[in-house]
Amino acid sequence: MSRRRRPRISPARTLAAGAAALGMLALTACGSDADGGGGGGSADGTLDVVASFYPMEFLAERIGGEHVSVSTLTKPGVEPHDLDLSPKETARLTEADVIVYLKGLQPAVDEAIAQSGVTHIAEATSYTSLEAHGTDEDHAHDEDHDDHDHADDDGHDHGHDHGAEDPHIWLDPVKYAEVAQGVGTALAEADPDNAADYEANTEALVADLTALDEEFTAGLADTDTRTFITTHAAFGYLAERYGLHEEAIAGLDPESEPSAARLRDLHEVAQQENVSTVFFETLASDATARTLADDLGLATAVLDPLEGITDRSAGADYLEVMRANLEALRQALGASS
User: Fold this and answer.
1) Which of 45, 60, 81, 196 has its CA 20 to 30 A from that of 283?
2) What are the beta bridge partners of residue 68?
């Protein structure tokens, strides 16, 4: 059984609905920060930081420490890919001192931030390199968009640049550490009086992420198989970092529906690559993953893409859940002890 897709509201409509709220806040934003850089701090004197979703929130809290007040646009338990913003949330962005987000994952957020007027913006993908991952169907979708690029009424060409470019960089601890360094620099630029603390906190977090990378490298060095099956193609960077091969049921978008051909391919992969486990997630439907596992007589387990922390998560924060993911992969891949 596939999960019912909730109706999508386009980013353009979301922004239109928020236009009045943005207008009402314009004078306030200008009055609090002459260069349009945000709301001039929280009521308690800390830096007002808005994060787009959990991985960005974790960075802001760890690096900002006592000097920041962090809020997130994506509430716990909400699947972030197709987040829609209310007019209030769209207007809220104009009051931020710093915005920490990842471009390409949440179109409505991208559009709202582009119009926010905030000076200090830490955009995660600008601090590392992106690669193309996903299923063959993702790439076919990308090529189809390329074939249908069009010009508008004034003759300007509007190509599509999303497709199979993978935004899930936080699941590679090395890339996530690169993003952390960029976020630390952005916070220091917004609040130079506390720059030394931001630098120290960044160094501590990078050390934690380096240790996590070393744990993954050692823990996945010797396994019976290098292939794993997931609900959606979130683990391409992790797989590439540690010499694994991800086969996903859905593509980069967890709500995309796999074709019959894709499911046949997965049957073949599972048999040829000695796959023991089909992984599902905490925020996306597990129906297709469980059906595939039942058809093949395979076990199921959770591999968390860490798009949010809930009471069902296997840990309280990024580091704890990533270590739970490592243990799940070790068991599924038949890692030596």
Assistant:
1) 60
2) 47
Q: For residue 284, give both structure tokens.
A: 């996306």
Sequence letter at residue 259: S
At 124-156, the pLDDT tens digits run 999 999 998 865 544 444 444 344 343 343 333
Of 259, 255, 263, 247, nearest to 307 (Cα)?
255
| CB neighbour list of residue 305: distance below 8 Å, 6 or more residues apart | 168, 171, 232, 234, 235, 281, 283
Report which listed range, 89-93, 195-199, 244-248, 250-254, is most confident: 195-199
Query: Which residues is 123 bridged to in the sheet?
Result: 101
pLDDT reading at 12 higher than 60: no
The pLDDT mean for the chain works out to 81
The HSE-up count of residue 216 (CA atoms within 13 Å, CB side) is 27
For 85-98, write each residue's pLDDT tens digit: 999 889 989 999 99
Q: What is the CA radius of gyration of the chain?
A: 21
pLDDT of residue 112: 95
- Identify the sign of the CA torsion 142, 147, 151, 152: negative
What is the per-residue pLDDT for 135?
52
Instruction: Name the nearest CA neighbour of 48 among 98, 10, 82.
Output: 98
Q: What is the pTM of this model?
A: 0.79
Tokens of 215: 């744990």
Of the candidates 265, 249, 210, 243, the residue with the CA atom closest to the CA atom of residue 335: 243
